[in-house]
Amino acid sequence: MHYVYVLECADGTYYTGYTTDVERRVAEHDAGEGAKYTRGRTPVELRHVERYDTRSAAMSREYEIKSLSRAAKERLVAGGDAD
């Protein structure tokens, strides 16, 4: 399976990423070993996860989420519609 996830960083910003193992990836971010963006913004909290059958679908959704406004991302992590 392929996953797209949204983290909330310690400074209140959101980070969106792709992985095949959400638990491992969040632990890497928390340990300062994840993306450069999250290294200085720990601890991080997993706020949203979506599962996809293909890497291509997950990567497309990751791009889509990264393109959303802050308000739309807030609606997404709150469990509402991001559009």
UniProtKB/TrEMBL annotation:
Recorded superkingdom:
Archaea
- The record places domain GIY-YIG at 1-75
As recorded in UniProt, coiled-coil segments are none
Identification of the protein by name? GIY-YIG nuclease family protein
